[in-house]
Amino acid sequence: MAKKQYSFYPGCTSERKASAANYMVSVNAMCEKLNIKLNEIPDWNCCGASIGYAEGGELPRHVMNARNIALSEQHNPKQDIVATCAACWLGAKESSERLSASEQLLADTKEVLKEAGLDVQLKNETPIRHMVEVLIEDIGYEGIKEPMAKPLEGIKFAGYVGCQTNRPFGVDGESFENPMYLDKMVETVGGEAITNYERKVTCCGGALAFSEPEKSQVQIKDIIEAAYDQGADMIVTPCPVCQMNVEVYQGQINKTYNTKFNIPVTYYSQLLTVAYGGDIKQAGLDGNIIRAKRLEEIASK
């Protein structure tokens, strides 16, 4: 398999000791097996995903993403920008499209970027892609299967896509109501996908987990219950916010609703890394709060 290179935007949550640091560990191990090279954008900044909640205004949010795009076009020319975080991907892609659609917004953005000397670097011609798009469109399911060494047999996965990788853009060719790519990935590496999982595109509540936790926890409870109802052993997701919310609030939900939830919530990259022969540490499974013991057993063989 020929090496494919991408301009990589890691995002804040993948930083060392951040909430999705183990996601990045598994992505790196997965990419090594798939012969993918991620060239990190130098001096990247936050995508500004939370600015909307803080009423920071539209222009600052788009400028933050435009700066990353400009840096990528300067340092990693002709390489698609790839993000692993759903919020980063969504924000950067939206900014790129908004800048393309509005000459005034583009002019205002470039005026701000002048202070950083990046106004002339911003061409805004680079595709913005989520890692799952790279896997599906560039590697393909047969390519995903190729390095498999340890099939994930006997494990049932509920593919929880969430909302940010689903709307408004979604993955090309997938249904907005019932996207199947996580199910296909699971089946490709020998796992059993629960294809009729009814909460796969339900929002986890996002930032409401901090501001209005009772509302978010109702959403999370429904997501977990639906997985249990279908006999899932664990939930798999492409979104760091979804992973964090659905995993860490299970104890609190148990106290509130007298439930006994204890279901692992993993990333697709952790599944693939284990299937490719990676150990617990390489798959970042030691960073999960609710340990995915079934995956750890396979990883330990």
Describe the model:
There is one protein chain. The protein is α/β, with parallel strands linked by helices and 301 residues long. It has two domains: 4-130, Glutathione S-transferase Yfyf (Class Pi), Chain A, domain 2; 149-299, Rossmann fold. It is built from twelve helices and eight strands. It has a four-stranded parallel beta sheet. A four-stranded parallel beta sheet has the order 6-5-7-8, with helices on both faces. Helix 2 packs across helix 4 and helix 3 (86-101) packs across helix 4 (103-113). The model has no long low-confidence stretch (mean pLDDT 93).
Overall radius of gyration: 19 Å
Average pLDDT over all residues: 93
What fold name stands as the CATH topology of the largest domain?
Rossmann fold
Uncertain segments: none
- Class by helix and strand content? alpha/beta
The CATH class of the largest domain is identified as Alpha Beta
Main beta sheet strand tally, sense and closure: 4 strands, parallel
Helix content: 40-55%
User: Which word captures the global form?
Assistant: globular
Number of beta strands = 8
The string of secondary-structure elements, in order, is EHEHEHHEHEHEHHEHHEHH
In the CATH hierarchy, what is the architecture of the largest domain at level 2?
3-Layer(aba) Sandwich
Which features does this protein show?
12 helices, 8 strands, alpha/beta, 301 residues, four-stranded parallel beta sheet, 45% helix, Rossmann fold, Glutathione S-transferase Yfyf (Class Pi), Chain A, domain 2
